[in-house]
C-alpha cells in the first residue's frame, strides 16, 4: 500500500532522435533543441532537451510505475533549474508528499537529478488521482 513517504526512482537519458521526434510531435522546432551551431551561441552552448519532453518522464512513471496503472495525471508544477542535455544520464525521483483519501489523490514530488554529480535539474509537484490506490 502506498503512503506518505513512498518513493520511486528511474534512471533515464534522451538521444537526439528522441528530441527530433518530439520536435515533430509537438511542432516545436526551436533550433535550441537540435542545431548545434545555433545552440553554441546561447548560454547553454549545446542543444537542450525540451522541458515538455522531460515532463513526459513524469507522465510515464505516474501512469505506468508509481503510483501506477489507472492513475490520472491531474496537475504538474515544474521549475527547470538547469538544462537537460542529450546523451547525459539523469535520475527521476518521486515521493508521495500527501494523500487526500476523499478525493483519491496524492501530491507527489517530481525531481530530476544529474546522475554524475547529483545536482538537481528539475523540481516540481504533481497531483495524481487513483481510485484504487488512494
TrEMBL record:
Protein name: MaoC family dehydratase
Signal peptide segment: none
GO molecular function: (3R)-hydroxyacyl-[acyl-carrier-protein] dehydratase activity
Pfam families for this protein: MaoC_dehydratas
Alphabetical list of InterPro entries matching this protein: HotDog_dom_sf (IPR029069), MaoC-like_dom (IPR002539), UPF0336/Enoyl-CoA_hydratase (IPR050965)
Gene3D superfamilies: Hotdog Thioesterase (3.10.129.10)
MaoC-like domain sequence ranges: 11-108
Gene Ontology annotations of biological process type: fatty acid biosynthetic process
Domain of life: Bacteria
